[in-house]
Design goal:
By secondary structure, the chain is α+β, with helices and mostly antiparallel strands. It contains two helices and two strands. The protein has a two-stranded antiparallel sheet with strand order 1-2. It comes from Asticcacaulis endophyticus.
Amino acid sequence: MRTIVETALQGETLDALVWRVLGAGSGTVETVLDLNRGIADIGAILPEGFAVTLPVAAASPVAAREIVQLWD
C-alpha cells in the first residue's frame, strides 16, 4: 500500500484531515488509525503540525457512458 504523510492544521481532527486530503470518510479513517498506531491516544484534536500517514488509493478507471441528448 502506498502512503503519504500530511501534517495537521490548527484545531483539526483526524476525520477532518482525512476528508481534506483524501476526500474520503467512513472506512478510510479506520485504515488511517491502523497505519498510525497510538494516534487515538492523542485525543480528538490533533496538535498543529502533527504528521499523519495516509493511504493512497489507486485511481479506479471511470466507465464510459453513452450521452443522451434531448434534442437529437
